[in-house]
User: Fold Alpha/beta fold hydrolase from Plantactinospora sonchi.
Amino acid sequence: MPSSPLARIRRALRPAGGVRSRLTRRRVVAGSTVILLVGGLVGWAVWPERPSWSAADAMITVRSGPSGTEPVDLDTTLFLPDGASADRPVPAVLLAHGFGGTKSSVRTDAEDLADLGYAVLTYTARGFGRSGGQIHLDNPDYEVRDASRLLDWLANRPDIRRDADGDPRVGVVGGSYGGGLALLLAAHDPRVDAIVPMITWNDLARSFLPESTGREPVDGVFKKGWAGLFFGSGGTAGTGLGGLAAPGGDNAGGAEGGDRDGTGSANQDPMLGAVPGAPPGAAPGGDPACGRFAADVCAAYLRIATTGRADAEAVALLRRSSPAGFLDRIKAPTLLVQGEADTLFPLAEADANARGIAANGTPVRVAWFTGGHDGGTGPQSDQDRVRFLMAQWLDHYVKGAASTPSTSFTWSRIAGFDALDRGLVASGFSTTDYPGVDGTGRADVAVAGPVQRIANPPNGNPAAISALPFAGGFSSLLDGVAGDLPGQHARFESAPLTEAVDVVGSPTIPIRAASPTGEAVLFVKLYDVDPNGPAALSNGLVAPVRLTGLPADINAAQTVQVTLPAIVRRIEAGHRLRIVIATSDQAYATPAQPVTYTVGLAQPVGAAPADGPLPRAVVSLPTVAGEPIATPAVIWRWALVGLLAAIVLGLAVVVAVLRRRHRRHDTSVHPEYADTPLVVRDLRKEYADGFVAVSRIGFEVHRGQVVGLLGPNGAGKTTTLRVLMGLTQPTAGEIHVFGHRLVPGSPVLSRIGALVEGPGFLPHLSGLENLKAYWRATGRPEADAYFEQALEIAGLGDSVHRKIRKYSHGMRQRLAIAQAMLGLPELLVLDEPTDGLDPPQIAEMRRVLRRYATDGRAVLVSSHLLAEVEQTCTHAVVVHKGRIVASGAVEEIVGESPSTQFDVSDPDAARAVLDRLSGVRVLPESNGALVVDTNGTARSEVVAELVRAGIGVDRVMPRRRLEDAFLALVGENSRGSGDR
Assistant:
């Protein structure tokens, strides 16, 4: 039976030799002290940190409704910082959750705010969770009045700071549904001292019935995907979509995997809370078609969802719950945080709120981040930035403990991936004045394309998918499957951009349309088309358009200016813009009747006629100039760069010292080899584990020669080249280049151009920039590089201006060969130069190498392609198992052939003549050729006999090839010992 762990520990502690240790008082005291110290450290490390606040749940009854007397029970939790009392009252924050969530959805955010010293009151809004009442969509008479009564409750607590009797010192924070509540509460209750609404709406009617040419929501295009999800999640108790939908803590402000009050769904979205599932049903006695929605809200939704169109009554109901009509009453300083990845409440909603509130002189700050309803919380740098802005805003305007925060505008864009945690990285920017969605500058890009006919599918099926709720843009993933469907969209494209454009705001494009019914519903999209990748639709954002009064003939159509959703995106140089006009979109309701529209581009009003064969229009892209925002990650990277620079500097000093030492120790020239490009003598390379890669190799490369280094895999070819280039030290032997003994850092290396083990190009630079950077590193004048000759050899054409990361393997190989030839070095060393090249490029490389070995230059090339070596090289060195088995001129290694191929005018007559010659044997035909074994008879005699018989002889050719000689030297099944 195995011994127990405790027994093994006792044996491990027992003194060697079985001698029993004696316990002394000193040892007992010392051991006890160590145990106490270790125990204390372990306890300190693992003991959970005690929160600096306490939490208390309560059901609070408030009276709301139009009369202010209707009671409703709200499920609440108060987070109170330690030490808060009547003698030391603290400021408060009312924290509202997103649609469909509960108080548990925002618990992490509440804890963070409580850690900052605020009393935080969270609650479940009416119609959700354990709270009573019905959902009225942030109606001022219901949800807003509920929140105002909660402020009364805070004002009656002695441990909450007050500005006056009944007036608590309070800020209101909320995301999405909670953000709308924050705005509306500030408009209706002057006691609110500051608000932070996040990813919320300005006009709820316009949000669910958008129209991108400026028409009113009654003519908008119904956003059925989001509306259906909201209605479905609000129709049952305790389910839904919402937490604090903005950058936050572990759950980013969303629910924590399930409501703590036990009524919510455990299937929670980290951004918005619970995703609709199968939770408890509708309120008892209610209409199952409406769930917990108020009757008027339910009726309005059902009317719009049934017809796909809004009526004036439905629009009025939605606007009753919209901040748009109350912005002039908001006096509380407002920090508006809006997501760039948001097909529900796009950036234009925050822009309208900002302009309306600022018009009253109220301090407003706007921050855009890379997340949103479709993009989650964004990268960590975005979360940190927004949380800092919120804390700064509340600390000044609610706590009164900080200086006045800036009202500068901040935004961010995805910059790439973090190599450490594999997550996305966002770059933040800031500018003093808020530019809105129009930007501070414009970049106009022409797009062109013919007039096109597109079909509206019956009942909107099948429909393209540009975005799905919570899931963001799908266009790049579904392109060709469920993206822009054939026959249902028209495309218009620009030329490649000559320089990058940083888009910040809403692009615009003029279009024309015609319809036999006089009406059309269209969806306009802006794609960023990477020539080497998929076309990208920024966050799945589209511009829905409903046009009426259209002619049947496109030539009679009027210009319509379409404003696309605001985006933040860098469009790189070389990319194209693509405008797509589509008839269907899964997220929206479209006309049920099938019809074919005609669409095209339009010139802006007052613009001169465009040149070119196709109609053209201008996409106007807004831009904003801003300063980068430093983040802890950026500061850390700069510190890391400094550390690496110090290391590099130290290494450079070491290398310089070693080079000086080598130059000092070995400056002599071997007189016998002074004019010979390369001499290798008795080279040996043995590794520490005893493996011998090169046993004994010696050969020479002279001016004018192209020498092929041949051998099976593992023969020692690559090791020889590595030693030659100073990449590894030989165990024994010497290498001389033009008489100079070769050592690492030797100046004579500058006379060698090499391609060994890859060139190590920088992927973010173009091919030409890589060549120039390499040459600058040599410290030699640019005029000595012969760039034009090298680029002509590479044969890359205009591709030399593209970034290396977009190169194919063959393109990289050609550029690497050009780099090796920079400066036209006297000795060129190439390892498998034709790897990745196609047959025409291999043939060209053959001619290049032969031409290169002129004017006193020489080439050493290692290759597995024996046929290419035979046609290219003047000499060859055959290596097998670390030793040379043959060297010399290629024709000498090939040797005499026992058989000869004759190309003649009459093969049958020639065969009859040769059959009569003594000792001469005609071999079986090979691909129609006449192959003869002369058996010692001179070829000239055979030719003479054929000519005497009147047979024309076109060509005489030995049948032996370099491959035959190579296999004879190393064996057909030979394997090397493994090159290193």
Q: What stands out?
A: The radius of gyration is 40 Å. The longest helix spans residues 632-665. Residues 706 and 874 are 5 Å apart (CA to CA).
